[in-house]
Design a protein that fits this description.
Blueprint: H1 2-6, H2 10-24, H3 51-61
């Protein structure tokens, strides 16, 4: 490619660059996340559970339940609705 470019043979250089591009630059694929059978992803609202109910879920799910540090500040999106975190 550079040999052709150095000789101002731009069509040849462009042809080689076009052929090499898929190997030099990754092609990104789009991914669509869906729920069962292509439907919406199901979520569960845990905001109305009591502290005891949340503790039971943490005991069942262990590390999947999130941080075990209850004194840590809430992350965005956590905590009670309307309290700002």
């Amino acid at each position: 490619m550079r040999t052709h470019a150095d000789k101002d043979e731009w069509d040849e250089a462009a042809s080689i660059a076009k052929d090499a591009a898929p190997y030099m630059h990754a092609k990104l694929a789009s991914i669509q996340h869906t729920g069962r059978n292509g439907g919406p992803i199901q979520t569960v609202d845990l905001t109305k559970l009591s502290g005891d109910e949340l503790a039971q879920l943490e005991a069942i799910f262990g590390p999947l339940a999130g941080s075990s540090d209850d004194d840590a500040p809430d992350q965005p999106g956590e905590g009670e609705a309307g309290t700002g975190g």
